[in-house]
C-alpha cells in the first residue's frame, strides 16, 4: 500500500468531516442514528478516541452519499476519484457502500512522537469483509501483528529524518488497520489505532493514563454545543494546536487571527447549510476576526453578480457572535453546484 494512498484516505475522510460541513468544496481531494449518541454527547465511537487529540470530526457517509446534492455532483462529475479507487483496490473497502459513518481525529505533533505534523485516525462503522481486506493488504506488503488480542494490519511507509529537541531521529511512518469490534474499523497512525484498541479493551481509566476524548471537557463542550441531531457532518477542535503543526511561514502565521477553538457543523441534502464558529484568544482578537470576515462578506456580496442562485447564497451569509465568539452561518443552494459541475465539465472538455 503506497504512502500516497494511505495519506489520501486519512486526509480525505477528515476533510469530508470538516470540508463538507463548512462548504469548502475547493478543498475536495478525491440526526445521528439512535445508537450513535450517548449521554456525553456525540457518537459512541468517541469512546475509542484518546483524550489528547486536537480535533475530532464526524460524517454520516450514507446520508451524504444518498443526498440530492451528492447525486447532482455525481451526475455532473461521474468519474470516481483516483485515490478512492486505489484505496478500494488495495484494501477491498468501498468508502461509498461499505461505510455508514466515520469519526476522524488528529493528534498534534509532540516531542515524544517526533512525527511531523502529528497523526490521524479514522474510525469507520459499516460492513467489512475482514478476511478479504487482510488478504488484499498483505498482498500489497502489509504485515499482521497481534496487539491487545486484536489483529493489527500494519503497512510501512517512507521514513523521514526529523529533529526532536535538536536530536536527529529517523522516523518511520506506518499506518495500521484493525477491526476493534464487528463492523468497526480503526485506520490511521499505528499508535492511535493501538490507543483505540486499548480503550476498547480496558475502557476509560484516567488513573492509569488511559482515557478517551469523552473526558476532555473543553472539546466535548464544543460537541454538545452543536445541534448534532440535525447535522450530518461536523468538526471541532483546537485551532491553535493545528496551526502550530501546519509549519506555515511566519509571515503567513502573523496574518492569521489568534483563534483558540473552532466548531463547524453542516447538513448536506438538496444543498449545503451550516455554521462555522470560532473562539478567539481574547475580545481584541475576536474583533479583528470580525473585521476580516466583514471585509470578506462585503467583497463576496459585491461579486455575486446577477445570478439569483449566487445572490441567494451571498445573502445567506450571516455574521454573529459576542465577546470572544465569532460565528458565520451559510446556506449554499443546489443551483450553485450546478454551476460548479458545468464549470468542471467545461474544463474537462477542453
Concise description?
With about 350 residues, the chain is α+β, with helices and mostly antiparallel strands. The chain has helices at about 5-20, 60-65, 70-75, 80-90, 130-140, 190-200, 215-225, 240-245, 250-255, 285-300, 310-315, 335-350; strands at about 55-60, 100-105, 120-125, 145, 150-165, 165-180, 185-190, 235-240, 260-270, 270-280, 320, 325-330. The protein is globular and about 60 Å long.
Structure classification: alpha+beta
Largest sheet: 12 strands, antiparallel
Fraction of residues in H or I helices? 25-40%
Count of beta strands: 12
Strand content: 25-35%
Low-pLDDT segments: 1-39, 111-117, 159-172
Question: What report would you give on this structure?
Answer:
Helix content is 38%, strand content 28%. The protein has 350 residues and is α+β, with helices and mostly antiparallel strands. The chain has one domain. It has a twelve-stranded antiparallel sheet with strand order 4-5-6-7-3-2-1-8-9-10-12-11, with helices on both faces.
